[in-house]
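Example 491.
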Amino acid sequence: MAVPLFLDPKLEPPLTPLLASSRFLHDLVDGLGSPLNVVVPDRIAENVAGFRSVYRSHHLEGDISFAHKANRSSALVRRLAATGAAMDVASLGELQHALACGFTPDRIGVTGPKEPELFWLAARTGVTVHIEGHAELEFLASLVRRHELPRVRVLLRLSEFSGTAVKVLSRRSRFGVPAAELAGLLDVCERHHEAVEVIGVSYHLDTTSLDEKALALEGCVRAMDECRARGMRPRVIDIGGGFGVNYLADGAQWEHYTSQLTLAAMGRREPLAWRNHSYGLSSEGGTLRGSLELYPSYRPVAGADYLDELLRTPAPTLGRPLATLLLENLYDLCVEPGRALLDQCGLTLARVLETRREPDGTHSIRLAMNADDCALEEHGILMDPVVLHRGKPWRATENATDSFGVYLHGNLCLESDLITRRLVLLPRLPVPGDLLAFVNTAGYCMDFNAQHAQQRPLARKVAAYQGTGGWQWRLDDQYWPIHSAEDAHEV
Ligand SMILES: *Cc1c(COP(=O)(O)O)cnc(C)c1O
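Predicted structure in complex with pyridoxal-5'-phosphate:
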């Protein structure tokens, strides 16, 4: 018999003990509705510590900034404020939120597209501004002069790095100035030196490739030389985010699954997704076309380990490890992980409303949630949800001998409202009243796309933490770091 195409999610504490408290989770959804997002703030502090220990092993200093856009939670941002982490914000609302959650301006940076009000608040409070291009720099400088604002610390965001000895060329980006055009930007900085202080350079590349990132980091070191040659005193290289998460417990499952997807795209096995969706693959006269457009669910080196590997990578033309290059120059290294800091920080719960057997032998499961409540589909696929049967304990290791192919439908009047287009295999069929737990959804899945379609309420979000008497919870906006586990006995 063929091996079932399970995609078992990677599960670590605190999500494992949280799932084991199935009764607690059922009670929460009974009281607060489905879907429900649960975040575990203490884990984000552990993830920061993981990045910090990589810094320490390379003797490096600098900010570990959380890219706020990956989750809107107040609990997570407040918990972070209680660590040594910094914040990377990309909108006026995010900046206000970071300030209100306890971040002082010296621990905040603004990136991305900016409106005049955002520039003003950043400059007024003394937040660092990442400059995306000439126009931004001119605008900021004139704003500072017109409103007599304090001098603003800026990082110059660069893109399109190219190597002389290597062929890798980082891709074009809507953000940042091509590294080759730095001189022009520095002319503008010099002209406005009383309004802006260049404290360093940055990049954020949307790629998993170490080679591309090594090239960019080395390009930043060269850019710092250019700044210094003009008498500037830059000290920070900010290498953005994109350290990634490993979502899957077992890499062999990913190999097996993606190879079967290829066969399905070529019509050599039954479909693995709704209406034979094939994630970018197609077949023309028996030849495979296209490429798999999926975030790699299995990433053996992700998060802080990915940073470690990058720092060990030799600079493409200068040869020494990148960490050495930074140390030699006494530069601070800044990182802006979004997804990676949210690894294992949350899950999304949905109530099963109906289970129906279809003529083709698959089952349709209708959930009290819709696709936008747990949105990963544009970039990847959801791992198998964990079934929390009502009134039964959940155990991490179920010996699955059976499997049921199910499609997970949402609650909107849309044919296309599927939580995942993937045919999901479950070891046991859920019944109405059971919960499906989508784990590790804190990074981008939870609230990035959530909306009030059909007047349906947005999912509530709660912060869960372990106190002396087991799991406790508060609504996300009622949580402050004095409620985390180690402090629980003090209040
Ligand atoms: C989105 C973003 C990040 C975070 O990216 P992740 O892949 O979530 O780590 C960091 N920096 C900037 C400028 C971003 O736009």
